[in-house]
Design a protein that fits this description.
By secondary structure, the chain is mainly alpha-helical. The chain is built from two helices and no strands. Helices cover about 95% and strands about 0% of the residues. α1 runs antiparallel to α2.
C-alpha cells in the first residue's frame, strides 16, 4: 500500500506560488538596490563638483582668472542645486522601492507559511499512514500467533 497525499497538487501549487513570490521579492530587492546606487552616484557627483570648484579656487588664487572662475562657480552652484532636487526625487523613488520590497517580502512570508502548513499536514498524514500500517502488521502477527497457538493445542490434545 502506497501513501498518497490527497492535497499533493495543492502543495505543489503552493510551492510554485512561493517560488514566484521569491522571484518577485528578489526583483524588488534588486530594484531597491539599483535606486540606492543611483542615489549614491548623485551624491558622488555633487562631491566631485565641489572638489573641482575647490581646486579651481585654489588654482586661480595664484593665477588670477576671475571672470571665468565666477562663471564656473555659478555653473557648479546651479548643478548642485539641480542635483539636490534630483536627489530628493530619487529619495522618493528609493522609499517607494523599499515599500514595494516590503510588500513582496510579506507576500513571500505568507506563501512560505501556506506551504509549510500543508507540508506539516502531509507529514502528519504520512505518520498516521505509517502507524496504520504498523497496527495492521501487528494485528496480522497476532492473528498468526493465535492460529499457531490453537494448532498446537489441538495437536497436543486434552
Amino acid at each position: 500500500m502506497k501513501f498518497r497525499f490527497r492535497l499533493q497538487k495543492v502543495l505543489e501549487h503552493r510551492k510554485r506560488l512561493e517560488d514566484e513570490a521569491k522571484r518577485k521579492y528578489f526583483e524588488a530587492v534588486a530594484r531597491t538596490q539599483e535606486a540606492k546606487d543611483k542615489l549614491e552616484a548623485m551624491y558622488k557627483a555633487i562631491d566631485a563638483s565641489r572638489n573641482r570648484a575647490h581646486q579651481m579656487l585654489s588654482g586661480t588664487q595664484s593665477s588670477g582668472g576671475g571672470h571665468e572662475l565666477i562663471l564656473s562657480l555659478q555653473d557648479t552652484d546651479l548643478f548642485i542645486r539641480g542635483q539636490n532636487i534630483r536627489i530628493e526625487q530619487q529619495r522618493l523613488v528609493v522609499r517607494e522601492c523599499k515599500q514595494a520590497e516590503e510588500i513582496e517580502q510579506d507576500q513571500l512570508i505568507q506563501a512560505a507559511k501556506d506551504r509549510q502548513a500543508l507540508e506539516k499536514l502531509r507529514e502528519k498524514k504520512l505518520q498516521e499512514f505509517r502507524e496504520g500500517i504498523e497496527r495492521k502488521e501487528a494485528a496480522e502477527v497476532d492473528d498468526l500467533n493465535i492460529l499457531r497457538g490453537v494448532g498446537r493445542d489441538r495437536a497436543e490434545g486434552p
